[in-house]
Amino acid sequence: xxxxxxxxxxxxxxxxxxxxxxxxxxxxxxxxxxxxxxxxxxxxxxxxxxxxxxxxxxxxxxxxxxxxxxxxxxxxxxxxxxxxxxxxxxxxxxxxxxxxxxxxxxxxxxxxxxxxxxxxxxxxxxxxxxxxxxxxxxxxxxxxxxxxxxxxxxxxxxxxxxxxxxxxxxxxxxxxxxxxxxxxxxxxxxxxxxxxxxxxxxxxxxxxxxxxxxxxxxxxxxxxxxxxxxxxxxxxxxxxxxxxxxxxxxxxxxxxxxxxxxxxxxxxxxxxxx
Amino acid sequence: xxxxxxxxxxxxxxxxxxxxxxxxxxxxxxxxxxxxxxxxxxxxxxxxxxxxxxxxxxxxxxxxxxxxxxxxxxxxxxxxxxxxxxxxxxxxxxxxxxxxxxxxxxxxxxxxxxxxxxxxxxxxxxxxxxxxxxxxxxxxxxxxxxxxxxxxxxxxxxxxxxxxxxxxxxxxxxxxxxxxxxxxxxxxxxxxxxxxxxxxxxxxxxxxxxxxxxxxxxxxxxxxxxxxxxxxxxxxxxxxxxxxxxxxxxxxxxxxxxxxxxxxxxxxxxxxxxxxxxxxxxxxxxxxxxxxxxxxxxxxxxxxxxxxxxxxxxxxxxxxxxxxxxxxxxxxxxxxxxxxxxxxxxxxxxxxxxxxxxxxxxxxxxxxxxxxxxxxxxxxxxxxxxxxxxxxxxxxxxxxxxxxxxxxxxxxxxxxxxxxxxxxxxxxxxxxxxxxxxxxxxxxxx
Amino acid sequence: xxxxxxxxxxxxxxxxxxxxxxxxxxxxxxxxxxxxxxxxxxxxxxxxxxxxxxxxxxxxxxxxxxxxxxxxxxxxxxxxxxxxxxxxxxxxxxxxxxxxxxxxxxxxxxxxxxxxxxxxxxxxxxxxxxxxxxxxxxxxxxxxxxxxxxxxxxxxxxxxxxxxxxxxxxxxxxxxxxxxxxxxxxxxxxxxxxxxxxxxxxxxxxxxxxxxxxxxxxxxxxxxxxxxxxxxxxxxxxxxxxxxxxxxxxxxxxxxxxxxxxxxxxxxxxxxxxxxxxxxxxxxxxxxxxxxxxxx
Lengths: 274, 446, 296
Hints:
The complex is a heterotrimer of chains A (274), B (446) and C (296).
Chain A: H1 2-30, H2 35-40, H3 49-59, H4 62-93, H5 97-108, H6 114-131, H7 140-144, H8 151-162, H9 167-174, H10 179-190, H11 192-208, H12 211-216, H13 225-232, H14 240-261, H15 269-273
Chain B: H1 2-27, E1 52-58, H2 64-78, E2 82-88, H3 91-103, E3 113-117, H4 118-127, H5 149-152, E4 153-154, E5 157-158, E6 160-162, E7 168-173, H6 174-179, H7 192-206, E8 211-213, H8 219-227, H9 246-260, E9 264-266, H10 270-278, E10 284-288, H11 292-296, E11 305-309, E12 328-332, H12 338-347, H13 353-363, H14 390-400, H15 410-425, H16 430-445
Parallel strand pairs in B: 1-2, 1-3, 8-9
Antiparallel strand pairs in B: 3-12, 4-5, 6-12, 7-10, 7-11
Chain C: H1 6-41, E1 44-45, E2 52-53, H2 57-64, H3 66-97, H4 105-113, H5 120-130, H6 136-143, H7 157-184, H8 189-197, H9 202-213, H10 215-230, H11 234-240, H12 251-261, H13 266-290
Antiparallel strand pairs in C: 1-2
Helix pairs in contact in C: 3-7, 3-10, 5-11, 7-11, 10-13, 12-13
């Protein structure tokens, strides 16, 4: 009985994994094929991998774009985790009526489509450029600034803090830890999984962010990966083999981040602390 | 914890230093001018005596970007003062960036020159009246194919420098024709009804569809309308012209007849569109001449293709065997560096016929400068098309394309039509289809 | 917080605010400032730079705009069908993947997460190929004799909606799974042990322990998925372009079209955006209330 259940569980997961991974495999196969074969939906690996790679490296500076994307995504992730976890923790642990109201107002900022804010935000950065060109239009800092604090992540940290065993804080207070010390020495280590999840999500959305970098960046030297891929597809005669290869390369960093971080998802971690 | 904090600090430092370095290099460009000096009208404004940089935005590396590179080469060889900086974006990306930039009222980060599709040109010219430079002083509208002037000018001023012709042709598989008992002559200068008849026969004999269509893209209707000198909008470019427009009616009926004849292979995106003819699934491709490289991408079909004039609408006496699809033109932004930008365009796409013959030979791009419509490059046969002089043919058809005003709302109306055409194909009668589309367009566009 | 004297209480309040102040400032500058400008824009009309105030006209226009109505209708169909399905599926998968004894956990988790990092360009090409009239999905269904003729996944109004729903579920289930996996660490395994001893089936454990314990996170994912669906853009834009006709068009796609595809009517686009804000606020309040969370 248990064996049957176990077996059906593996079957179910394998099917789910296959469905999830199939388009990805197809992409990898396509990166070894010529464009004409890709549009035909050829499912077998071909001989064009080296051609595609050579053409890709000749036509665009993908390494530079990877570098830009890494700078943006790593800084966004680190800053976002710091700011949002402090805030999420603050809103839940030091709860007050006023803070609840402020929190609910903050939530409003997730609700507007970005398209509606784009023009005013760009105008704002026009002004910032006059004052501090270092973080103005056409800088990587301008990509990071408006995306590093999201109500979304604050909300996530707050909801996770609701599940955090508050007894641990009392214990820490008795040990004489300061309020900031409680956060650093008790909350952060206990909530590793939450940080791991937040890091994955933030890194991924920052890596894939398209609209805002498109608007704010100008010079090709600052191009991030999604902008580069969009450019590759701009032709009336797109080279799909080359595009697929570029996409495969661009997906690797997020996949690595995920694979490393998911190891922190250990079942019943808090339970085992107590 | 210290590790994390130092990591964050390090990444911040890294970010700032990197943006600082690149910030400096951006400062020399005409567009990213860090001071934002407002000496409009003078060349070399602001910059410290050295060379001036002109930034250009365009899409498609195999066509527009390749053309720009050739133009840049020729231009920079002639003078030392101006360097041209080409930046490639997808067309949709250019539209977003341009709209956001122009709307926010800051010229920072805008290019000096931008490529705009003719269908959208009036929209930009009228929505941002002061944003573009009047080019009347450096180019002559008479030098270009007449149908390109309507979309590129506004209020009597010539804003755009017309670029590629967009002239259409019917690309057709000669081997399928032969199997069905036809010759190329049988499909030359025909009307769409004859096209459908040929298509039925080909389907019967070879099992192949005659053409492929994406139901979300009404390019074919646009081609039919322009071939008769008519459009979705009246001459003023604002009033919807659907309900009482016999040309649109015939175009819709023809479109439906193709589906009824069961000779259309559906596709839902560009890659499937390309695949349909690269795979040999369709016998013909009625579209703009910019498709040539994509057709030739499938080497195994070499010698099996011909290009004939696009079919005309049989019932509309004004319809000719020539039309246009998706051409575009260059525009200079009215800001710092505009004169340098204007002189680049005037010296290259505005007058240089040698450049155009290079464009033709190297990338197969056909311009709309009249003076450049002949020459040895045009007289070369293309073996892929059985030795046919396709460029000479396209140049000839370019001259015959009827003139229409694309106006402000081409794509808005097309989205309404797309919905109504679905209803039409499902059995709604044509007059109410056109009436409903008209009513919707009127209420939406006001 | 049991501050006895008022200076203590003041200090405690200051500590609390210092945790949140940076976040609040950043959001005010980079979200609320542009949002207020967008709100003002929503009372203006005109194309491009020629804008003028026209009072409530834009908001009145919403009620007579048939394109808007269709987009709202479609979006709500996606919302009602897709969000509950995805939340349950993600919960179920996370439960399986949270099992300590499961082999190849890392592989399964990464595989199921992969769809949401797959680039949109590839995603749209692949999906359209899979779901084409003569695509792989149809061949599979035909060979298994599940259908007698190919399903028009992309070009039939009903099936195109299904395709979009499949696409969203495919892309975002793994994403939601992350939040559940991270939340499950907070559930004490001893609770499950006790339940097992009491003879509770795994179904009972799932509904009796997992779901109630994860409530804050489930609330979080429901609200963010609702927001995501009401702002749905990528899938529709890349797979069906809203078609056939406008059978799959979404509100966000309409905003995009109004701003960039048609004649740059940024004023009306802002109005449509604020209509989304209002709908989300209402739905979120309902969700907070249903979840019994005191934030609402």
